[in-house]
Amino acid sequence: MGRLDGKAALVTGASRGIGRAIAVELAREGAKVAVNYQSSDAKAQAVVDEISKLGGTAILAKANLADRESARAMVKNVAEELGGLDILVNNAGITRDRSLRKMTDEQWEEVIGTNLNGYFYTTSAAIPIMTEGNFGRIVNISSMNGQIGAFGQANYSASKGGIIAFTKTAALELAPTGITVNTVSPGFTETDMFAEVPEKVQESIKKRIPMGRFGQPAEIAKAVSFLITDGDYITGQQINVNGGAYM
Ligand SMILES: NC(=O)c1ccc[n+]([C@@H]2O[C@H](COP(=O)([O-])OP(=O)(O)OC[C@H]3O[C@@H](n4cnc5c(N)ncnc54)[C@H](OP(=O)(O)O)[C@@H]3O)[C@@H](O)[C@H]2O)c1
Hints:
With 247 residues, the protein is an alpha/beta fold.
């Protein structure tokens, strides 16, 4: 018996990287999982297949989260297909790095649109469904760089700092309804997103991590899963999973 048997979960940005690891981890605990993504059809299908092989249930949930109608319609469809929605993990995120002096409006808006607006669209669509069931677990993926800032990431760090503040207000407002809302902030984690960082920069970053290595997606997924399976009295909190890179 899994600890999430019978629960329905939506993980955004689950075709790759951290989202993929979260989707698989929740499925291992018994949850039925909707795998959201934007364009990687084959990769998302591979996640669904992996979960099916584990004996779990998973469905595809393609939608561009920066588009409010498609994000909200996706949440509604997922709840219909899975017979409710108990767990929402807002994870999808993008970077469009450039120094603040050179950053274009498009680069700013694209990152805020996906990383911050997208979290609002899915969460606001999930709240009435979760409230009806008197239960909900929402975990928002932020970032270490949302707390300390990062060169070339004014857009990204603003979106990630915003997620932490958003989480606290959502937790406050939803506490009486049985819905908890928390943030997990990864440090540097080995995914496609981090692969975009030049190797030389990666090496200098590694030297600044007390544990001396980058994180793995599965290590972020464990923290998310803990909040969902064992975090009944935890809400409005922010958990860093970063090898000690920011304390
Ligand atoms: N990797 C790190 O070092 C690190 C550190 C701190 C925080 N984080 C955060 O962790 C989360 C996951 O990062 P990652 O490294 O796993 O990223 P990743 O490997 O680049 O994967 C990004 C995922 O988000 C999806 N996505 C992007 N834009 C979307 C949109 N508009 N609508 C729907 N889905 C969209 C992608 O779908 P497609 O495959 O279809 O494009 C993909 O599934 C992000 O929020 C990121 O900011 C990562």
